[in-house]
Amino acid sequence: MPSPSALKFRDAMERASTLARLSTDKRLRPLSREHSRFFLHAALAASVAAWEAYSEGLVADFYREIFDVATGFARLHAIAKARAEKSRTKFNTPNSEQTRELLLDCTGYDPINEWTWPARNMTGPLVRERLNEIVRVRHSFAHGLAMPSFSWNVTPGGSARLDRAGLNMIEAFFKNIVTCTDTGMSNYIRTNFNPHLNW
């Protein structure tokens, strides 16, 4: 069973998918290239926001699952949880480095070995690079900058663009990385804190 944050992520990604579908919805024709781009950019922003919210939420899930008043460490738990909450509020760039740092600093769990995508033959370094690329593309249009070019968002003519194929890849990418992270965190909690974890 997925974590509570993973369930919320699924709902958020469904909303992002709806935005992506609107970019090519024939019922909205004639849809200008600018309007289509608006839906695509909104879908990407929603996807990255879903990943960010998942990462932050997973920290809160961790503290809910490890709390055990019987251990006598309730005060220590409260101190650590308060520090984690402070870190969560400062978290705003969900690239691979900062997401890893958030999870490691707040929970002790290091997701780096889980971040792979076997279905796409992507090893850990490639997954981290792709995550950083996606965040950089989102950052570019969020701040009015030129969109950077990567293998997955460039036309045959060499121009950077966002299209449905790119958004489909991004959706699959985030679903994969959330599943990997969720599994890793679940195993980490079961092994170190709560063998009766229910997700």
Quick recap of the structure?
By secondary structure, the protein is an all-alpha fold.
Description:
65% of the residues lie in helices and 0% in strands. By secondary structure, it is an all-alpha fold. Helix 1 packs antiparallel against helix 2 (33-66) and helix 2 runs parallel beside helix 4 (96-107). The longest helix is centred in the N-terminal third of the chain and has 34 residues, at 33-66.
Number of helical elements: 6
Q: Which range does the strand content fall in?
A: under 5%
User: In angstroms, what is the radius of gyration?
Assistant: 19 Å
Largest beta-sheet details: none
What is the helix/strand order? HHHHHH
- Please state the overall shape, judged from the principal axes of the Cα atoms: elongated
Helix content: 55-70%
Distance between the termini: 5 Å
**Strands, count:** 0
Average pLDDT confidence is: 90
Low-confidence stretches: none
Which oligomeric form is depicted?
single chain
Structural class: mainly alpha
Would you spell out the secondary-structure blueprint of this structure?
Elements: H1 4-22, H2 33-66, H3 74-90, H4 96-107, H5 124-142, H6 164-192
Helix pairs in contact: 1-2, 1-6, 2-3, 2-4, 2-5, 2-6, 3-4
List its traits:
199 residues; mainly alpha; elongated
